Please model this.
Amino acid sequence: MKQTTWQLQEAKNKLSEVLDCAQTIGPQEITRHGKKTAVILSMNDFNRMLGKKEGLIDFFKKSPLCGLDLDRQKDISRDVAL
Model:
């Protein structure tokens, strides 16, 4: 299995390999002086992370029907055959 944690100098020297690992294995951690300082992500992982799902309320606010008075009239009776 390939490495997922890289010392900064090694990551600089092997940047192509770090990027390949980010695409095939997953996020790659970069350390500086033994402390985790950065993460390299594939573009897919990055987009997935940013891809916040829209909530139902926001969906309805963007509707072309937003702002229209669509309240149901309660004084209208309906005959229903059962």
Notes: Helices lie at 8-13, 15-24, 43-50, 56-61. The chain has a mean pLDDT of 88. The beta strands are 5-7, 28-32, 35-40.
